[in-house]
């Protein structure tokens, strides 16, 4: 069946300067509708999508319209597996304030979209809902990030800061504990750090990018450097794995204290 809607023809492949982005695939699309219906501009589906009833019911409940547009979905998928369904959403109101009472994951200039999507999925899994993106981080609006996160980006509070100093000024004062994951003479092992008391849930886990890590200022007070011990057989851990280990261990301590 051909696309008939006027709106479906206006959408193009992702571009950083466009005022919208999109998410493709059933599960991420439903997550977008579930958590951030306020962002949704349009919903499109293919005639062979086997969850049409669920989609149309959800759209109706939210006061949104779903349009049959298989050709648009095929174009946006760029030759990849047929997505069956997609959601166009506005970028303008995506970012949200972080909770000052909750733990934060802070990501400094992350460059790999697959890593970022995987990290955000792990955030939701381990109960850390407040994420700060710092500096020249890969665009959160890339469709592959929403897909890699399985829609987790829509369930999280994500904020952007031009530099680490801006984040510290907004959230790093008072009793918040700032843990930087980097090599340093001051670094504690992860296990040693976990023997020290946490001040409620006022802590931030701060990670640098895949190549250069964190700037040297992160080795000094008020930051507490931490390193994840590993065997000498590997140079380093994948960033998504390191973030996941840290979040799991810190959240486990929160529950046990």
From TrEMBL:
InterPro entries named in the record: Alpha/beta_knot_MTases, rRNA_Methyltransferase, SpoU_MeTrfase, tRNA_m1G_MTases_N
Domain tRNA/rRNA methyltransferase SpoU type per the UniProt entry, residue ranges: 104-248
Keywords of the record: Methyltransferase, Transferase
Xref: SUPFAM superfamilies: alpha/beta knot
GO molecular-function terms, A-Z: RNA binding; RNA methyltransferase activity
GO biological process terms, semicolon-separated: methylation; RNA processing
Protein name per the record: RNA methyltransferase, TrmH family
Organism whose genome encodes this protein: Amygdalobacter nucleatus
């Amino acid at each position: 069946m051909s696309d008939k809607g006027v709106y479906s023809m206006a959408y193009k492949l992702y571009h950083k300067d466009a005022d919208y982005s999109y998410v493709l695939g059933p599960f991420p699309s439903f997550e977008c509708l579930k958590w951030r219906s306020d962002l949704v501009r349009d919903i499109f589906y293919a005639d062979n999508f086997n969850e049409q009833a669920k989609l149309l019911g959800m759209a109706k409940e939210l006061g949104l319209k779903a349009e049959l547009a298989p050709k648009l979905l095929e174009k946006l998928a760029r030759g990849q597996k047929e997505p069956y369904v997609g959601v166009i959403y506005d970028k303008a109101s995506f970012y949200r304030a972080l909770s000052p009472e909750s733990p934060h994951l802070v990501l400094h200039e992350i460059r790999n979209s697959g890593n970022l999507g995987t990290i955000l999925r792990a955030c939701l899994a381990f109960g850390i809902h407040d994420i700060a993106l710092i500096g020249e981080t890969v665009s959160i609006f890339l469709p592959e990030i929403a897909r890699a996160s399985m829609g987790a980006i829509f369930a999280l509070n994500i904020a952007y800061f031009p530099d680490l100093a801006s984040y510290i000024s907004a959230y790093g004062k008072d009793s918040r504990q700032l843990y930087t994951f980097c090599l340093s003479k001051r670094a504690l092992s992860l296990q040693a750090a976990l023997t020290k008391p946490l001040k409620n849930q006022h802590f931030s886990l701060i990670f640098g990018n895949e190549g250069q890590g964190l700037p040297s200022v992160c080795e000094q007070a008020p930051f507490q450097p931490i390193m994840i011990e590993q065997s000498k057989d590997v140079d380093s851990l994948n960033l998504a794995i390191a973030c996941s280990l840290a979040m799991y261990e810190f959240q486990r301590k929160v529950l046990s204290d």
